[in-house]
Write the structure tokens for this entry.
Amino acid sequence: MSSDNQTVPHLHTQKEVEEAVKEYKNSDLSGTELMPLWQAIHDASLDLASTKAVETEDEVPGEDSY
């Protein structure tokens, strides 16, 4: 693993993740320049997915139709 001085940004909301994905897709950078952004998107996506799973854990499917 390289010892680059690039820091991984911290993304906290779904909107921040979506904006980072757009930036990643539109970027003309490659390799190590994009790695911190990819890592931030990856980490935030996992965090947001696990948070959403915890929030909906007690819900009953279709309960909104009752």
Observations:
- The longest helix spans residues 35-55.
- Residues 1 and 36 are 13 Å apart (CA to CA).
- DSSP finds two helices and no strands in the chain.
